Amino acid sequence: MSRQPDPSRRSEQSRQAILAAAADLCMEIGYAATTVEAIAARAGVGKQTIYRWWPSKAAVLLEYMRRIRDARLGFADTGDVRADLLAQTTAVQTLFGTNLGAVWRGLLIAAQSDDVAAGDVRAFLEVAVTEAKARLAKAQQAGELRADADLDMTVEIIFGPLYHAWLLRARPLPEAYMKDVLDLVFDGLKPGEGGTAAPQG
């Protein structure tokens, strides 16, 4: 008796093929030149198959990025917040220098003119922001950071320079770029003169 094909398995194989095709095209020819038609041709599926699962190429690429993010470990917690932030931001800087950076750059550019893409990109970023704020809050409670530091603003100050330099391509980023950024930031975040430590106990 022959086994019947598993529709769910075939469906997941098609999804994987579409995600890989979208990412490969974006890396090869850029976000603007990547189209749903081209993705469908590369993946060996019909356009209607893509539109059944995603409303746009941005949505396809965001799912690709989301799967990569979810497969990785979350924000490190070694007990040294400065070291953890350096590890996290250096990993982001490294990603920006890979082909995945081209995918992310395209999505960020699309978000400037596409309200739907903008909402999806914000939701994607919110996961990373929430993880960073949770780690910073723990550092506040441990007395590593000023208790009065605004954590939303702190995240923007830490990650903002990296995004600014990368998106504007203002200058080549040295390997120690984020170490230098954090050295400057932590002069203002550490407890002591100009700030207070979180109460203990």
Polypeptide structure, described:
By secondary structure, the chain is an all-alpha fold. The protein folds into two domains: 7-58, Homeodomain-like (Arc Repressor Mutant, subunit A); 73-189, Tetracycline Repressor, domain 2. It is 69% helix and 0% strand. The chain is built from nine helices and no strands. α1 crosses α2 (36-43) and α7 (115-141) packs across α8 (151-168). The radius of gyration is 21 Å and the shape is elongated. 23% of the residues are buried. Mean pLDDT is 89; it is low at 194-201.
The gist of it:
This protein has nine helices and no strands.
Tell me the strand percentage band: under 5%
Number of E-state strands: 0
| N-to-C series of helices and strands | HHHHHHHHH
Helices, by number, come to: 9
Approximate helicity band: 55-70%
Assign the CATH topology of the largest domain: Tetracycline Repressor, domain 2
Mean pLDDT: 89
Give the CATH class of the largest domain.
Answer: Mainly Alpha
The shape is: elongated
* Radius of gyration over C-alpha positions, nearest whole angstrom: 21 Å
Spans of 5+ residues with little confidence (pLDDT < 50)? 194-201
CATH superfamily of the largest domain: Tetracycline Repressor, domain 2
Mind telling me which CATH architecture of the largest domain this is? Orthogonal Bundle
Distance between the termini: 68 Å
Largest sheet: none
Number of domains: 2
Structural class: mainly alpha
Keywords: DNA-binding, Transcription, Transcription regulation
Domain HTH tetR-type: 12-72
InterPro entries: Homeodomain-like_sf, HTH-type_TetR-like_transc_reg, HTH_TetR, Tet_transcr_reg_TetR-rel_C_sf, TetR_C
Protein name: TetR family transcriptional regulator
